[in-house]
């Protein structure tokens, strides 16, 4: 059994690994811009992620997905699909460095969402750190375009980060039921696939084998990040 210090270090390593895989996924999304629509990319990411989990489900049986948190799983998927769509749009329409920076604002939103949803206490130094973080992000990004119009891709990225913080807090909300990571990822992929199929069908582009290969690579990176 891990000691608290070991748990902290182990969690930190997993967070770093997750962020690394997410950046790799972002690079693939950038490559797919113009080849596949954002809606297609979101759908394939979730559908293929679900397919990757089928061997686990086959080995474990349906008992592995029995849950008392089905409502929370659906809510997490709904918020997550919206966040994913926003972030994928930002990855596709912003320079990689700016898109990655926007994605990194997600931890700034997590304490705020946790306060509003779970009533977790916000200390003054956390509030100061959040404020400094947002000031720094705005100074680096400069979200106003040359014409003085707000860059919609930046707004989409920030919205995705805010909603992404909500998905992370939802996992904390499930802790009373001891939901394992595999079950959380499975239900996210299942519900997200169902929620994203109609937008993808309405915004469909023909895909060749190369595009499908890149989409599969995206799924691998994103699923590894989610499991971490």
What this model shows, in words?
With 228 residues, this protein is mainly α. Helices cover 78% and strands 0% of the residues. It has 9 helices and no strands. The longest helix has 29 residues. It is globular and about 50 Å long. The two termini are 19 Å apart.
Structure, briefly:
The protein is mainly alpha-helical.
What is the strand content?
A: under 5%
Number of helices: 9
Distance between the termini: 19 Å
Number of strands: 0
Rg from C-alpha positions? 18 Å
Order of helices and strands: HHHHHHHHH
| Class derived from helix and strand content | mainly alpha
Mean pLDDT: 83
Shape: globular
Largest sheet: none
Helix content: over 70%
Low-confidence stretches: none
